[in-house]
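Training component of the fellowship. As part of building independent skills, the fellow (R.M.) carried out the full modelling exercise for a liganded target. The chosen ligand was glutamine. The inputs are recorded below so that the supervisory panel can assess the work.
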Amino acid sequence: MTKFVFVTGGVVSSLGKGIASASLAAILESRGLKVTLIKLDPYINVDPGTMSPFQHGEVFVTDDGAETDLDLGHYERFIETRMKKTNNFTTGKIYQSVLEKERRGDYLGKTVQVIPHVTNEIQEFIKRGAGIGTPDAVDVAIVEIGGTVGDIESLPFLEAVRQMSLRMGPNNTAFVHLTYVPWIAAAGELKTKPTQHTVQKLREIGIQADALLCRADRRIPEEEREKISLFTNVPEWGVISMWDVDTIYKVPRMLHEQGLDGLICDKLRLNTPPTNLKRWDDLVYETEHPKGEVRIAMVGKYVELSDSYKSVNEALRHAGMRNHVRVRIDHLDSESIEGQEAEKLASYDAILVPGGFGSRGVEGKICTAKYARVHKVPYLGICLGMQVATIEYARHVAGLPGANSTEFDPSCKHPVIALITEWKDADGTIKTRDANSDLGGTMRLGAQSSDVAPGTLAHSIYGDVVTERHRHRYEANVNYLDQLRKAGLVISALTQREHLTEIVELPHSVHPWYIGVQFHPEFKSTPWNGHPLFNAFIKAAVEHQKAAKAAA
Ligand code: GLN
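Fellow's submitted model of the complex:
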């Protein structure tokens, strides 16, 4: 039978609920349990696909093509279970489903209400996420509820999980509440009052926490833990301290050593083999003992919020560990690069242009791709980064001045990147679109496979077939491929069905390491193996650094 752990948050957001949930899942997985994570987002958007990265950080894409919250990226990086469409849903999605049912007449004339219709729908979605009734059913599903207790928006979610816990019985569900214990410098004290209040708020809703994860900038001493326990009705061993650490890989051990997984397994009556966190200890060792450092320039437009490129940042760090180097990433604003490439980019060991939408800053990215090509600096272009590399090559090498993407200039002379109108989706269905299609969920999304041309850089990385996740509307225009090829650009992978361009690169004779990919490899990188493309990119950065030092 599937058991559930509900993780709620109090006092303020951004305390690391995603990492805490993923860490608990990882510890339980190390005890031999089959685990998944589900994220409930209280906002009205049907999914985060249409939200600005400035507002919401990165949109994480699953194999089956769901555009999801970035916490799902943490989940996939922390546990073995892969995330699917059903692992993330929002208030908007719940209402969409309830309203569809209402229009179909499924409620048989009843007045449709938050309780029970919306709350029942939430429970159905949670069960679906846990795979109940399918061969994928897990032993434990950890359900992270977005937002903060006390928000109007998250109330139906909290009410739904309260009902679920009542229906399932006390030993089949557990509640973990993440709270904040601020250090007040003037008083020289940790303050427990906000925690007392948030737990009261939770109890008003009818939820008694089994464990409190108390975030603070330091360890919470015995005395404060006792006090918190007394005021919150949580036994003292359930009051767990979560202090600031320099790497997220330390969190699973931190929680385990204070007995969080033991407490959860007791509550849920789960008999398991002991915890084994060796792989986490190895990761911590690896991050703390690099043999060198490489500096990467990431030239994008959402640079103020590095969460916008969360998975790319993580993938670069994973690849650093595989190559035993620390990776320092500088996020450079593409708008400020144009005309100053030489000063701004000269000191880096490699350059990366990540994905992006809209025309702002595109010319700066094109200059960046040119700089990397001409100066033979390792270049990785991801999605838009591949498109700008193609535009740059068309303009400056293939003799196609004015080349552009129709996304940025619909009437450009040479639309080397253009909208495709029909493609096959991750689930095999044929999808069509035009310039007026809805923005939400209409992109080429999810995992698709392509054949890789032998003898190319891409082939040395991926072998014969590459399967990666997509999230974009525009594609390299087939009508220009021959011209680009003749000018020396190598098209090293094409999708199996539509023959869409997946990877472009420069031959080794011309450039040591220059590649652009239409997909998003960052979503499949894990701390354990890294990702072959990022591993190769960081390796190229290390080699570039060595060569530069030798030449100096
Ligand atoms: N804006 C481009 C497109 O829609 C690239 C998208 C991306 O980088 N994810 O095709």
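The panel noted the following from the submitted structure. The mean pLDDT is 93. The domain at 3-283 is CATH 3.40.50.300 (Rossmann fold).
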